[in-house]
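TL;DR need structure tokens for one chain.
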Amino acid sequence: MRVDTQLIPVPPYPDKLPNRTVVVIDILRAGSVIVHALSQGATEVIPVTTVEEAFDRAKTFPPGTTLLGGERGSRKIEGFDLGNSPEEYTAERVRGKRVILTTTNGTKAFHLVSAATEIFVGSFFNVTETANRCLQRGRDILLFASGSRGHFSLEDSVFGGMLVDRMLKRAGKSIHLSDASRAAHVLYQRFEGNLVEAFLLSNHGKDLVELGLGDDLACCSKIDQTTLVPIFKDGVIRAS
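>> reply
TL;DR here they are.
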């Protein structure tokens, strides 16, 4: 089994998607929001690329069934129900509801890899079970980091390294790593004892702190809070 990692969020080469399992990564914060919202009872998450599309999609569903969530410039969008902090997505707010989500980086990533055989949502909240599911499928794997405004993201790469570490510990020599996957693994080993340190060193983490959203860093670093691994299929993310 080969594990590739794409550290920059550009469309993958066409041959990297068919017959592969892809894990979309956006630690700060869309991927963490998606996993948490579904674990709290949201029925589904629909990732869209623009604010206008979010409002338009919401109009197609019965009143009271759908919440709008997301951010621009890391802030909640005017007219939306929720921002992009996982702790906003409580069971009281989201249970039994659909969430239409639009963010600067993460929600776009799903549409870049939609041709893959299966697409998981990974976060520290579900890292061990995500590794387990990848191994169970037995396909080659692409870890796809959403990055930050088209650039490399330290926190996404550290998560990719933890996922690699989990798979290596279970499957050992049957796992073949690309150089990018090895690099992510080395980064994870550097920050294994203090994930928040990596967040604080990252540009996006620094931006969140400056905006008064530093509590999200500690939240998004929590490991193995759920065994739920969301799957993106036909434009919708649901629990599995």
